[in-house]
Amino acid sequence: MVRVCVRRNSDSQHSRAIYEAIKGICYQKQCPNEERILRFVLREFDWKPADILKQLHFAVEDGLFRESIAISHKGSKKGNEQMSYRIINTDNAVELDANGNSQAEELRPDEDSGHDWYCFDCQESGEVILCEFCPRVFHRKCAKAHYISQEEHWKCPSCKVGEENNSMSSLPKEKVAKMLEFTIKRLREKFSELTKHVSIEHCPDYDLYINHSTDLSCIETDVVEEKFASPGQFLEELKYILHNAIIYFGDDDEFTVMAEELIEDAKQEIEEMLLCPDCYYLSNSKPKDWFCQPCNPPHELVWAQMKSQPPWPAK
């Protein structure tokens, strides 16, 4: 049966800004009420106050923050009760009360299906369809799923990539894995910053937003273990790095820009791989006389020449 639900109401960038606001206000030993949260967020972002408050309330509904009553201990409001907001704890984060003190009680947002919180295509919240074969979720419009039978087990666009027929469909899994090893090695060399998990020490709220954390080292392990039946499946897993970066760091962050470059490089590698799997394999493995070995199907031999250079054989 198709499962459709709202995994998150709040926008990740708004709720992350609010998270930093609450944390900063608490460390100043002040009560993180709506007024202070607004002032803090508006220092950094040109957002409408009404939108910030709307996202704050959405984040409370999502279980990212908790409302609590705090007693003012100083100023003209000393002794008065006021609404404040707490940061929800994860395994590695500390929940702070309105006075900046850690709480012994451990709080976590609801855990259910293990699916992603945000659409895999646009990284936005809202009503999504849950894939029955992977943790991804998609908005109906993003998945171009205008009609879905309630009887079917819905398979997302990313999972369907592995079903496409191409020049590598008939290759044994071990050969596909070997070619992907060449690809991941080049990507690791160029994007070394993406080979490690995001540090929870520096990003304690990371697990509140990222459901499927991965990096190039994890994906390389999957390649070696032959978990990808096609280059398309490999690319969809790489896209998780970009997906997570957009959700947590935002569109303009240098980490996100690097992840975008990673995906573009991977697409070029895969395009070359699909153009001729034999050429890709031989040019990377370089066995003896590899250039003379015919591909299947064989290429026409030609002469290539650059300006001011002698011609050389090519195929």
Describe this structure as you would to a colleague.
The chain has ten helices and seven strands. α5 packs antiparallel against α9 and α9 packs across α10. By secondary structure, it is mainly alpha-helical. The strands form three sheets. The protein has a three-stranded antiparallel β-sheet with strand order 1-4-5, with no helix packed on it. β4 and β5 form a beta hairpin. It holds the Pfam family Bromodomain. One of its GO terms (cellular component) is nucleus. Keywords: Bromodomain, Chromatin regulator, Isopeptide bond, Metal-binding, Nucleus, Phosphoprotein, Repressor, Ubl conjugation, Zinc, Zinc-finger. InterPro entries: Bromodomain, Bromodomain-like_sf, SAMD1-like_WH, Zinc_finger_PHD-type_CS, ZMY11, Znf_FYVE_PHD, Znf_PHD, Znf_PHD-finger.
